[in-house]
Every structure is written in C-alpha cells, then in structure tokens.
Design goal:
There is one protein chain. With 407 residues, the chain is of the alpha/beta class. The protein folds into two domains: 175 residues, Rossmann fold; 220 residues, N-(1-d-carboxylethyl)-l-norvaline Dehydrogenase, domain 2, CATH 1.10.1040.50. Strands 3-2-1-4-5-6-7-8 form an eight-stranded mixed beta sheet, sandwiched between helices.
Length: 407
C-alpha cells in the first residue's frame, strides 16, 4: 500500500518531530492535539526545525513554506477521513492510547494503519482495543525524531505481514533505518539501554562516582552523551515509566534504582522542568546530593566500585537476552544500538554484541559473575552467554562468538 497522507495524534516534542519528518518527505500530515494552544506549539516546533535548516543554508525560505503548507493542524478528527497511516504520539498511558485508537476507528478508512510511537507498551494490547488488529503496529521513533535515524517497527500478535512491509517501506521513504523487532516490554533499544542507565544511577546513589565524573568517563569512551545528560534530555518521567514497565516484565535484574524514583517524585524531570540529575538555569543539584545521603543512610551501601564495565556489562547482557529470545538478529541488535544511541567505542561505531566479541565472551562472563558477587543478581549472566562460553565460542580470539571472524 502506498501512503499518500498521514496523521499524527499528539503535538508534543515527539509528535511534532514526526510530523516534520513526514512533511520533509513531501507528504501532507494532519497534526492533532486536544487543545488549540498545544496544536499551535506543535506547529511552532515544526517551523523551528525548518528554520534551523534555513539558517544553516540547507533550505531556502520558499522551500520551508512549501513544507509547512503540508502540515494540517487541528483539534478534531475531521481531516482523518482519508489518511493512510496514523501515528499516535500521546503520553505513555495505555488507556489513553487505546482511547485514541478507538476514536480513530470511527473516522478512519478500514485500510488505515494505526501505528504507536510507544517506547515500551504492548502493541498487542492496543490492537485488541480496535476493530483492525491486523493493521496495528509499533513505529517507535527516537528523540529527536528529525535527527535520529532509527525506527523500531514492532508487530503485535495480530499484525499482518502486509502491514509490517508497508510500514518498513514508509519508514524508508522518510529516510529512516527501520529495524523489525519482535514484541516485548521495552522492545529493543530501550530494553538494552535501560540497564546501562539504571546501573549508572545505582553507581551514583552508592557513592561510586559523581554524576559528572560518570558522564565524563562514558563520553571519553566514545559514547555521544553520558547517562545522566541523556536521562535529563529524555525526561526522567519517561525513563521512570520505561523502568517500571521493564521491572514488571523481567524482574530483579531490572529493579529501578531508588534514586531515580525519588528524583521523579520530587518533580525533577530533567531539562524540560529545569532540574533533573543536574540543575538548569538557576537550579542546582544539591537536592539530589541530599537524596543520595538519605538512601545511603537507609541502605548502608556506599563506596561501591566504579568502572565502565560496571555500566556496559548489564547492557551487553540484555542484548544477549534479546538474541536468546529471538527479539532481533545479531546484526539488527548491533545496528539498532548504533543508529538509536550512537553507540561507539573510541572512534568506531560498534554494537553491544560486537563489543562482547572483542572483549572475549569468557571475559564478559567472568566479569559479570564478579559483579554479581559484589552487587547482586542484576549481573547474573544470560544463559546464552554461558552456553557460548562452554562451547568455546569466545569471540574474535576463537573466530566465533556472536559473529564469525577470519584471521
């Protein structure tokens, strides 16, 4: 199916970014929100993205106006009667997303694809609330949508192969890199990334290192952004929602660090609220230091060891779980983490399973077991990692690990 017109429900940062990407490809897009002021703010966000292109000489003012003319802002569903795909980008609340799809069911043609930009919630559950479960799919863009290349495409239990193929083609037409991911809590990138972010918060709350030191070491290792800068940028409420979803699904290895919950409860949601792990504007991070002291007094845990391995090994281990569960292939796991997070070691773009092969899978498992003894069950090695080691598939040094290598 060729897509001639799209709709986006939710004109916040993600919705507006997605709408801009679609108009840039030359397609008209209806941008809806519940209030006119929210719609206006979304339109302004789209214009700001285009204006930056004009300011950098990548587009002239006339082209910008042509693209802006493809945007159809609205507070009603009146313009959704002929859309071929609708992407919902409303807040991460299951009932709200179901309500949006039920409302769309009443106004959209039978052939319209319903896509959710959810970062962690069940596509199958959303599909069950519609009259067209075969046409419901996850289409997870990354923030900022106009910059990040990756789009996770997530079929639900009832999604047809035709819908998957149509959405992959649509994502490619938007100049994105689509990766098809089997449905699971957190999908692929957020599921793999969250243990890294969570372990960073554990290290901070246990006094292993300061937030700025952890960020600095991670950036020096090659990553484009440190974990606390990234979390503040993404929004700590969003991180907390994803962390809770993963904990409910996967248990103790995903138990959220207490500090993350305390910061969110205090209303420090990151850059958007002026305070998160760091303070912005006139705010400071002193309240976070006080929270850390409270946690350390309660738990008695302080001065635990810090290293890059402590942060990255849980990420690698979760990537192994994803492979073990057939969530995605080795190549797609590595590609998704590179395209979705800018993952690097030094100057080289590498994914987590590539890093594991370079380290040696026996070394990865040995270090995981050492951390498990010191820090607990969240470091327990994935069964597939253990099987690989027992089979002598140790990575580059043996010619076979998660990939195959020739000397």
């Amino acid at each position: 199916m060729y897509i001639f017109k799209a709709g986006v429900v939710g004109a916040g940062a993600m919705g507006a970014g997605i709408a801009q990407v679609i108009t840039y490809s030359g397609l008209p897009v209806v941008l809806k929100d519940i209030r006119q002021d929210l719609v206006d703010k979304g339109v302004e966000r789209v214009r700001e993205i285009y204006q930056r292109r004009v300011d950098r000489g990548r587009m002239d003012a006339g082209e910008m106006e042509e693209k802006m003319a493809l945007l159809i802002p609205t507070t009603s569903y009146a313009d959704f009667g002929d859309v071929d795909i609708v992407i919902e980008a409303v807040p991460e609340k299951m009932e709200l997303k179901k309500q949006v799809f039920r409302e769309l069911d009443e106004v959209c043609p039978e052939g319209t694809i319903f896509a959710s930009n959810t970062s962690a919630l069940s596509i199958s559950a959303m599909a069950a609330a519609t009259k067209r479960p075969q046409k419901v799919i996850g289409m997870h863009f990354f923030n900022p949508a106009n910059v990040m290349k990756l789009v996770e495409v997530i079929p639900g239990l009832d999604t047809s192969q035709e819908t998957v193929d149509d959405v992959v083609m649509f994502a490619e037409s938007l100049r994105k890199i689509p990766v098809v991911v089997q449905e699971c809590a957190g999908f692929l990138v957020n599921r793999i990334l969250m243990p890294f972010l969570n372990e960073s918060v554990y290290a901070l709350q246990e006094g292993a290192a300061t937030a700025s030191d952890i960020d600095r070491v991670v950036v020096e290792s090659g990553m484009p952004m440190g974990p606390f800068t990234l979390a503040d940028f993404l929004g700590l409420d969003v991180c907390w929602d994803v962390a809770q979803t993963l904990y409910q699904e996967y248990g103790e290895r995903m138990r959220p660090a207490e500090l993350l919950g305390m910061i969110v409860q205090a209303g420090r949601l990151g850059e958007k609220s002026g305070a998160g792990f760091y303070g912005y504007g006139g705010n400071s991070d002193e309240p976070v230091k006080e929270m850390i002291e409270q946690i350390q007094k309660k738990t008695g845990i302080t001065g635990t060891p810090f290293s890059l391995d402590r942060l990255f090994l849980p990420l690698i281990n979760e990537a192994v779980y994803c492979l073990q569960e057939n969530i995605a292939s080795v190549g797609d796991i590595n590609k998704a983490m590179i395209a979705g997070t800018g993952m690097k070691r030094g100057a080289e773009m590498v994914g987590p399973l590539q890093i594991a092969d370079e380290m040696g899978l026996d070394v990865v498992m040995q270090k995981m077991e050492e951390f498990e003894r010191i820090l607990g069950p969240r470091f327990h090695p994935a069964p597939l990692l253990r099987r690989k080691v027992l089979a002598g598939h140790l990575g580059k040094k043996t010619g076979k690990g998660f990939g195959e290598y020739t000397s």
